[in-house]
């Protein structure tokens, strides 16, 4: 959502309705300033969009919405593939990667892979749109006791997309949310992220040009910038849904704003919390291997992954915290954090965890100069992990806790104290570990995805993927921001009763012009 490259923008939000990881811009220029995280140097500025200009962009999106809604999934798929091709044009790709590296310090190797991922995501959502089963087209012919009924998913309308700081391509203005909304037939108005405003602007220009050349209507995609623009996006009557990837503070602020409208709209905010890892009693025999993997996962991308494992629960007597500390010192990870705010919050978060009862086991400087914070492993007594404690709140960055549980009852109690999360892992002694099933069953109600003998920092864009989780990890626990089901967020079902064939949506007409799989009189029919 990448991680192999993965997910989203996370981190403390100082901008309450912006979703960004940087403090709101208060300079008289009214612009988002781009910075180099390696040095803090200002790289340039992107003018903020006024409220009137945001409404104009949204008005164009609203005008385009009816056209997108009746355009065939195959044609929309063509638009997405054209956008993917435009991103991967060699000169364009090289220029975008260099710009992204200057603004994020994530490294050209990582960013080259992430750009390839976003192009692949666009093509994947094109394939999902064209396959058509997400429309759930259903026809029940009239009988002696019932009327003719047809049911199909209909696009909601313009979607406001708030992208991520930590994945400027895969979860940025052209990431999963934008791709899945367009695939579902909804126009998108994206907000440029203040952690990479120059890249956001460049991607916006590329998208507008590529989609227009491919035949998409004007208004299918728009871009705005600035803190106030984010609030206007959510409050506007033109906006039909909001998709957000970021911190809990920012996501909840958007959710509250959307629910204060005269006509509330859904907010699909993917925020994340502390993703737990459970080491079984048998798995403790390979503690050194698990410790290495845990360090690699929680420091990947300098700890700026929403699926970062933040808490390792190990059997009593395993001395797991010391093993993880040694693994961290041996790994000596390097890198910078995306913004000054994230770096400061990571360092402050360690101090808060210590004040709440944790003890620093090992600490390694991540980088010299710029926006950096030390990678840190802390230990904590399992008894201190109680609901409402700072110990169970996310510390975004290369920071993780280790606790030891006495027995199955204490493990069950501790897991019961945790907030809903995006993902969890179980580390076992192997396929025959007798404790695996119980651990999986214990964690499944808490998260959107459970991995066994695998780490959660990796979100594939596939048909079976679930990238969401119970509140407060997301505002919509049944939804996913990655995978084929991501389209479901931006549609709603409408039933048509006794409607003449010529007046029906194309998906329900007798000749099935979009060649969709449909359920007719209870039986699934798949076109050859």
From TrEMBL:
One Pfam family per UniProt: Aldedh
Task: Output the Gene Ontology terms for molecular function.
Answer: oxidoreductase activity, acting on the aldehyde or oxo group of donors, NAD or NADP as acceptor
Which Gene3D superfamilies does UniProt cross-reference here?
A: Aldehyde Dehydrogenase, Chain A, domain 1, Aldehyde Dehydrogenase, Chain A, domain 2
* Keyword line: Oxidoreductase
Q: Which domain of life is it from?
A: Bacteria
Residue segments, region Disordered: 1-50
InterPro entries assigned to the protein according to its UniProt record, in alphabetical order: Ald_DH/histidinol_DH, Ald_DH_C, Ald_DH_N, Aldehyde_DH_dom, Aldehyde_DH_Superfamily
Q: Pinpoint the Aldehyde dehydrogenase domain residues.
A: 34-432
Protein name as annotated = NADP-dependent aldehyde dehydrogenase
Origin species, per record, is Pedococcus cremeus
């Amino acid at each position: 959502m990448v991680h192999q490259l993965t997910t989203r923008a996370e981190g403390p939000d100082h901008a309450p309705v912006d979703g960004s990881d940087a403090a709101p811009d208060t300079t008289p220029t009214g612009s988002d300033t781009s910075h180099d995280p390696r040095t803090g140097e200002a790289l340039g500025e992107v003018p903020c969009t006024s409220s009137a200009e945001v409404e104009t962009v949204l008005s164009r999106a609203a005008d385009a919405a009816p056209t997108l809604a009746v355009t065939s999934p195959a044609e929309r798929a063509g638009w997405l593939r054209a956008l993917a091709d435009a991103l991967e044009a060699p000169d364009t790709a090289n220029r975008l990667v260099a710009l992204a590296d200057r603004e994020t310090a994530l490294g050209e190797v990582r960013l080259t892979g992430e750009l390839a991922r976003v192009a692949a995501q666009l093509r994947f959502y094109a394939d999902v749109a064209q396959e058509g089963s997400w429309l759930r087209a259903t026809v029940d012919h009239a009988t002696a006791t019932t009327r003719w009924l047809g049911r199909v998913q209909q696009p909601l309308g313009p979607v406001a997309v708030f992208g991520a700081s930590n994945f400027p391509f895969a979860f940025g203005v052209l990431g999963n949310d934008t791709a899945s909304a367009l695939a579902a037939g909804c126009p998108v108005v994206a907000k440029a992220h203040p952690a990479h405003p120059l890249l956001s602007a460049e991607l916006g220009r590329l998208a507008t040009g590529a989609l227009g050349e491919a035949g998409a209507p004007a208004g299918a995609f728009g871009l705005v910038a600035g803190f106030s623009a984010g609030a206007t996006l959510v409050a506007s009557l033109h906006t039909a849904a909001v998709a957000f990837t970021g911190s809990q503070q920012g996501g909840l602020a958007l959710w509250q704003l959307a629910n204060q409208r005269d006509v509330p709209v859904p907010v699909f905010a993917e925020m994340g919390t502390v993703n737990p890892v459970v080491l079984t009693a048998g798995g403790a025999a390979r503690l050194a291997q698990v410790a290495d993997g845990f360090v690699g996962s929680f420091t990947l991308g300098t700890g700026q992954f929403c699926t970062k494992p933040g808490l390792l629960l190990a059997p009593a007597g395993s001395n797991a915290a010391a093993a993880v500390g040694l693994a961290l010192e041996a790994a000596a990870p390097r890198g910078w954090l995306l913004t000054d705010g994230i770096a400061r919050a990571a360092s402050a978060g360690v101090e808060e965890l210590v004040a709440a009862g944790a003890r620093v086991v090992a600490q390694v400087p991540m980088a010299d100069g710029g926006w950096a914070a030390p990678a840190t492993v802390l230990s904590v007594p399992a008894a201190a992990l109680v609901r409402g404690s700072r110990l169970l709140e996310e510390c975004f960055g290369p920071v993780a806790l280790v606790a030891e549980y006495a027995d199955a009852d204490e493990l069950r109690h501790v897991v019961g104290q945790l907030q809903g999360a995006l993902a969890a892992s179980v580390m076992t002694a192997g396929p025959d570990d007798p404790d695996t099933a119980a651990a999986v069953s214990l964690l499944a109600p808490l998260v959107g995805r459970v991995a066994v003998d695998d780490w959660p920092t990796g979100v594939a864009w596939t048909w079976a993927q679930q990238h969401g989780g119970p509140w407060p990890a997301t505002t919509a626990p049944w939804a996913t921001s990655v995978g084929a089901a991501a389209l479901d967020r931006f549609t709603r079902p409408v039933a048509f009763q006794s409607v003449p064939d010529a007046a029906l949506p194309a998906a329900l007409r007798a000749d099935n012009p979009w060649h969709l799989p449909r359920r007719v009189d209870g039986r699934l029919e798949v076109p050859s």
